[in-house]
Amino acid sequence: MGAKGNGLTSMKNMEKELLCPVCQEMYKQPLVLPCTHNVCQACAREVLGQQGYIGHGGDPSSEPTSPASTPSTRSPRLSRRTLPKPDRLDRLLKSGFGTYPGRKRGALHPQVIMFPCPACQGDVELGERGLAGLFRNLTLERVVERYRQSVSVGGAILCQLCKPPPLEATKGCTECRATFCNECFKLFHPWGTQKAQHEPTLPTLSFRPKGLMCPDHKEEVTHYCKTCQRLVCQLCRVRRTHSGHKITPVLSAYQALKDKLTKSLTYILGNQDTVQTQICELEEAVRHTEVSGQQAKEEVSQLVRGLGAVLEEKRASLLQAIEECQQERLARLSAQIQEHRSLLDGSGLVGYAQEVLKETDQPCFVQAAKQLHNRIARATEALQTFRPAASSSFRHCQLDVGREMKLLTELNFLRAPEAPVIDTQRTFAYDQIFLCWRLPPHSPPAWHYTVEFRRTDVPAQPGPARWQRREEVRGTSALLENPDTGSVYVLRVRGCNKAGYGEYSEDVHLHTPPAPVLHFFLDGRWGASRERLAISKDQRAVRSVPGLPLLLAADRLLTGCHLSVDVVLGDVAVTQGRSYWACAVDPASYLVKVGVGLESKLQESFQGAPDVISPRYDPDSGHDSGAEDATVEASPPFAFLTIGMGKILLGSGASSNTGLTGRDGPTAGCTVPLPPRLGICLDYERGRVSFLDAVSFRGLLECPLDCSGPVCPAFCFIGGGAVQLQEPVGTKPERKVTIGGFAKLD
User: Fold this and answer.
1) What domain range includes position 381?
2) Which range is least confidently modeled, 29-38, 154-163, 249-258?
3) What's the chain's average pLDDT?
4) Which residue from 9, 19, 111, 298 has the fewest beta carbons nearer than 10 Å?
5) Which region among 166-175, 353-362, 550-559 has the lowest average model confidence (pLDDT)?
6) 517: which DSSP letter?
7) Has residue 188 been placed in a domain?
8) Cβ–Cβ contacts within 10 Å for residue 192, how many?
9) Are residues 328 and 355 in the same domain?
10) How does 66-102 read in b/e, with b if 16+ C-beta sit within 10 Å?
């Protein structure tokens, strides 16, 4: 009872999955759209009609609806009709066959019919045949029928052909598309007739075809096209439409999809606690969203009110300034008016001057007229050079609010920084990993960054990938200290500001060196001519100048010449373990040899060595990428890679290691382009030295080496050339990020 009750409850809870998105009722003859969503056939016809498509609502099942198959549309009086004759029953049962209602023969169809899917809100292409090219979802119909039976009260299916009162149906017939009791089934399927071969089914309210039929050829579907993701029949399989497609039998597709669905469903059912926990988290997120949204509204309202208060205060101060300016000007103009009125005949200053002129006493006149004359002179000058005492214009009080209006118009919420762009030209891995990035031009600024990385060459752990993280990295670069050698790291960055974290940058993959990095400086005391070699002050770069010997060689090319071989050694020697270093060779170099050799042999060969004859002189007499084939089993004391004119020479005596170069790697006796940086990896215990592309860490060459004593890095020059050792990343004044101190991030 418990299992049955749970099944009934689950059937009742899935009602929302059985509702058509158009009519919001239970599916009736649902069709599968190309976007995998479902819609009732009648609803699909109505939608196409609203879109202006007429005559494209063909029944994809090739079996149109009959009154017996949809009891909800039948008249209630149908079950109380008198029993018809067998021949009339045949006509009634077959009345739905033939030309579909609304289908016009020979009608012109649009080239492409688009259907607006109500579920995904997208337009899906139905092709030229419209709904007639779609499959019915018979599985969904069966689920809907089982759901109706589980939730119906007294849901017994009655015989459709009994006299009133009808008996409970015990059989159904797909061919007749009707339900029968035992007696009626025997009556309408007499022995010896073709109907006797009809196979009875369980009574049902909806009759469906026995299987899916191809809408194009009316044949049973037998295969599944993985390319088109569509069921096809035998005729479809051989047609040009599916030529070259990956087609499998329906049984294989059925088993594969069933296994995937079962596995996914098992995982979901086995993690119900997780689902419930996530539901609680989502409900808490909903509550937090409501509270945060209300707080955000209040903050925005408060800020806008603050802007309004500032504007109101500014408005009052500006109006006060205009008022004061206006009063000052009015006072000055009023005073000027009074002065001019005093110049009128018989009033003011003019009247007083006229009375003074009547004075006959000369001393008294002189005394009074002196002051009066000054006033009259000023008045005369003011009259001759009349100008209002104040301007009536207030243009200087106009406001230019264009910038402020633009700012207010562009006033918007804060945006998080956009995804940073990692500078792949400056990002590299050496003794440490140097990561450099920048923000896009129009990105909001970032207060700080988060750097995340992980190794990709470690066994995958169950669950999401685990990243190591460093928070609050200032600047646009970071150092990752102590990376594992011979590993591949994937790194990403994202910025943060007041609006929160932005999007992650694109992942960048970096290969770390195959061995610990060897730090050394150049030592020009052995075999180096100061006239031809120039070593930088930091002892990490050296340049060879051809000088006079090479010029004389060009003049005596036919008679013989002397070419100088200049050698620069590293100031350290390797006596154990594995070591790696990298350098850059100038592509314009004439001939440069980069490699390693026994310290004793190098000093013996080049200490105070004079110029040697022949431009093909080999300074090492050992193993070289351009040397002759080795004829002895003893490992050579030297191993050099020959570089010249932007190319690397892999001579016939050099053995290419497929473990480094791969199947498509360089072979002996050829040249390959010079990479930006060369890497040298020395395995002292194994007596092997490997030359690599220091950018991609692609192997170029692997050679044996005599490691019976200390081994030194060496660089040989014939003619002009330059070599630059790669500086350790740790010497750069950048922010350091310690890998061991990173917190785990799930």
Assistant:
1) 267-385
2) 154-163
3) 77
4) 111
5) 550-559
6) B
7) no
8) 6
9) yes
10) bbbbebeeeeeeebeeeeeeeeebeebbeebeeeeee
Q: Same domain, yes or no, for 586 and 721?
A: yes
How sure is the predictor about 445, in pLDDT bands with cuts at 50, 70 and 90? Answer: very high
Report the domain count for the chain: 3
What average pLDDT does the segment 696-710 reach? 90
Peptide bond into 165 cis (omega under 30): yes
Q: Is residue 155 part of a domain?
A: no
Q: Are residues 324 and 438 in the same domain?
A: no
Q: What is the mean pLDDT of residues 256-274?
A: 87
Beta-bridge mates of residue 114: 125
612: its two tokens: 């040697």
pLDDT score at 592: 92
Three-state secondary structure of 103-159? CCCCCCCCCCEEEECCCCCCEEEEECCHHHHCEECHHHHHHHHHHHHHHCCCCCCEC
**Are 683 and 541 part of one and the same domain?**
yes
Q: What is the pLDDT of residue 66?
A: 38
**Nearest-5° Cα angle at 732, 730 to 735:** 80
Inside any domain, residue 642: yes
Residues 506 and 526 in one domain: no
Give the end of a domain, one of 325, 359, 385.
Answer: 385
Q: Please indicate, yes or no, whether residues 535 and 579 belong to a single structural domain of this protein.
A: yes
Q: Which residue has the tokens 């579907």?
A: 221
Number of DSSP helices (H) and strands (E) in the chain, helices first: 14, 39
* 636 vs 94, residue with greater confidence: 636
- How many whole angstroms separate alpha carbon 27 and alpha carbon 18? 6
Query: Are 559 and 490 in a shared domain?
Result: no
CATH number of the domain residue 539 falls in: 2.60.120.920
Distance CA(2)–CA(25), nearest Å, equals: 30
**Are residue 695 and residue 558 in the same domain, yes or no?**
yes
Q: Which of 185-199, 209-223, 582-596 has the lowest mean pLDDT?
A: 209-223
The neighbouring-strand residues paired with 701 are: 691
CA angle centred on 662, ends 659 and 665, rounded to 5°: 120
Segment 193-197 shows an average pLDDT of 83
Q: Tell whether 236 is covered by a domain.
A: no
Amino acid letter for position 211: G
Distance separating alpha carbons of residues 533 and 566, to the nearest angstrom: 8
